[in-house]
Design a protein that fits this description.
about 300 residues; alpha+beta; six-stranded antiparallel sheet; 10 helices; about 25% helix; about 25% strand
Length: about 300
């Protein structure tokens, strides 16, 4: 296979505008027709001009493509019924596209071009524009992604290791979280910090005696035999003045990390403790995808 290359957009930094698309493949489309159509995403109007494009596939579709190498752990997202009411719905689709660039008009233009090029085989099931907010902060005012691994270690966290099925690819968790920003903003800053588990200004983790077991950081930080189970977060804010929140995007070499994180957030991990953040933010979508390596994509698409 030669040098194993991931999809570089997974790790691209400095992009302030984002566009996320989820597509459903038409039931009457053959795998050959699908691949013929998706080869068009190489076109300059989609993949050039300072744009990063990441493409990922749902479990059922990826397994159906001839020649695809799929990890056995690849599966669809399933609804999570949480403790005391909050839940995480499943809204699985076939294909996920993430287009990021320097400005909203460029991101939208390339997203529209992408959908037009594959419209003969797939329909747009959902779309969401996202943006960078005050230097990588969530719209709650807290810095997002503080726990991400250092840049040089991100690939080890996000990518399936060489020699394993799906090598160089990455498992993706996508969720759209809607914030009750009005309710959260009514909390004193000290209480907001106890909800998150970090200080609002400098994103310093609270000491154990100040950080409740229900704090967001306490629920999503998981250690096994002294080692933290990390993921690479690439989430961005979205929304209008009426509905707004966080478009969560996580990449991992192992999808079980997502399952453990979500079970702890929604109180189904055995201790009955639910993430306090779910009192102020709720997911309205949820899907798992697999972002193959560039090598795997090229093998599927062919050399022409």
């Amino acid at each position: 296979m030669g040098l194993l290359l991931p999809q570089f957009g997974i790790f691209a930094q400095g992009t302030g505008a984002h566009y996320f698309l989820e597509l459903d493949v038409r039931w009457d489309v053959t795998p050959a027709e699908l691949l013929d159509s998706f080869r068009r995403l190489r076109a300059p109007e989609v993949s050039a001009g300072g744009i990063n494009l990441v493409i990922a596939f749902g479990s059922d579709l990826w397994r159906s493509l001839p020649g695809s190498r799929f990890p056995e752990s690849l599966a669809n997202f399933r609804e999570i019924m949480g403790v005391d009411g909050p839940s995480a719905p499943a809204t699985q689709h076939d294909v996920w596209l993430w287009i990021s660039g320097s400005s909203p008009d460029v991101a939208w233009e390339h997203a529209r071009a992408a959908t037009e090029l594959v419209r003969d085989v797939a329909n747009v099931a959902s779309e969401q524009a996202g943006f960078s907010y005050r230097g990588s902060r969530d719209i709650t005012g807290f810095i997002d992604g503080t726990a991400n691994p250092p840049t040089l270690e991100a690939a080890d966290v996000a990518l399936v290791p060489p020699g394993e099925p799906g090598e160089g690819g990455s498992f993706v968790l996508v969720q759209r979280w809607v914030h009750d920003l009005r309710a959260f903003s009514q909390l004193p800053v000290e209480e907001q910090e106890r909800v998150i588990g970090r200080t609002k200004g400098e994103s310093v983790e609270l000491s154990d005696d100040l950080k409740p077991p229900s704090a967001h950081i306490a629920r999503v930080t998981i250690e096994v035999e002294g080692a933290e189970l990390e993921i690479v977060r690439r989430s961005v804010p979205f929304g209008s003045v009426e509905e707004h929140g966080l478009y969560f995007v996580g990449f991992s070499a192992d999808p079980s990390r997502f399952a453990r994180m979500l079970s702890r957030m929604f109180g189904t991990s055995g201790d009955g403790i639910r993430d306090r953040l779910t009192d102020f933010s709720r997911p309205v979508s949820g899907a798992f995808y697999f972002a193959p390596s560039q090598n795997a994509l090229r093998e599927l698409a062919g050399s022409e």
